[in-house]
Amino acid sequence: MTHFDLIFLQFPEEIQGEVFGATQYKGDHYTVTIDSSQSEEIQRQTLKHELSHIKLGHFESDLDIRAVEAEADLYADQMSEEELSYLMTFCDRRKELSGHYDSELRFIPA
Ligand SMILES: [Zn+2]
Fold first, then answer.
1. Tally of domains within the chain
2. Most buried in the list 2, 31, 64, 93, measured by CB within 10 Å?
3. Range of the domain at 8
C-alpha cells in the first residue's frame, strides 16, 4: 500500500451525482479527492472505491478502464471496517477544503 493525501471538497454542480471521487497519481504519491456535497454513506463508499484502486495497483497497470472500475467496486464492496481502518493509516494528510469548483474546474475557496 502506498501513502496518500485525502481531500474533501464540493465538486462542480455539473458533475455532482455522476463523479463521486477521483484519485491522482503523481510523483509516487496519491491524492484522493471526495465530493463533500454527497451523503456520508456515499462518501464512505467512494473512499473505499478509491482506496481499492490504490491497493490493487491500478495506477501501475494498463488494464482496461471498465475492468479496473468493476474490480475496484467489487473490492470496495467486500472491504471490512478493519481493512478500511488499516488502509487509512497510510493517509498522510487529510484536508477539508471549503469552497467549490467552478464550471471550468477551477477551485473557488469559500
Ligand atoms: Zn474508480
1. 1
2. 31
3. 4-95
